[in-house]
Amino acid sequence: MRIDFIMVNRTLVVILEGELDHHTCVEIRQTVDREYQKKRAKNLLFDFASINFMDSSGIGMLMGRYRSVAICGGEVGLFNVSPEAERILAMSGIHKLMRTYTSKEEAIQALA
Amino acid sequence: MPKKNSMQIQFSSNSSNESFARVAVAAFVSQLDPTMEDLYDIKMAVSEAVTNSIIHGYENREDGQICIKCAYEDELVSIEVIDKGKGISDIEEAMTALYTTSIDEERAGLGFTVMQSMMDEVQVFSEVENGTTVKMKKSLGVE
Fold this sequence. Notes:
heterodimer; A: alpha/beta; Transcription Regulator spoIIAA; five-stranded mixed beta sheet; 4 helices; 5 strands; B: alpha+beta; Heat Shock Protein 90; five-stranded antiparallel beta sheet; globular
């Protein structure tokens, strides 16, 4: 699992590369939370372009980030989501809590 | 000639084996030349079942063993995920969407729901203190 970050205004963009399962989500959760606090970010934006597998552990990880970001008055967003990942996102009903954007630019603008 | 084959793997209840398990099953099922979508469905279902065994069956201990038996006959794939962990006392409750016993672990409570929607048939057999077996079936190429 590779995790990279870019800070745009007050939005922390998280670029994930690899597979989202129970094993990798533990690491993602710790790394993202640490960076979010360090950067004093408001919003979290996940780039899913290089996610080639995701199961329900990914949903749990996103729900957890939603809870901590909401406390700080921020929002969580996603972009570059594959049709396969979109299927489980839709199944979970998580879109009531966070939106999937078509591009990074659209997401940054909406979250600002 | 009917296509018929079977395999069995056993591994430690270490979370790094979640990806090993789904990739191993996918490699075996690939002999049937499935669609990418069917293969992804099977990987998801296996991943959920193995994750359940690790988190719930063995409560994140790494000294447990998980066994996967996989077989196919023509286009029908059967997968069994077997652990010898603590078992489930109320299977119906455990299979309810959004139900989870892991509060601090950020679980969505969707494991069985995902298995049921990815596979044609999901059966759960469990005995408290004796382990859990999840049996799943899927016919390839059927919507």
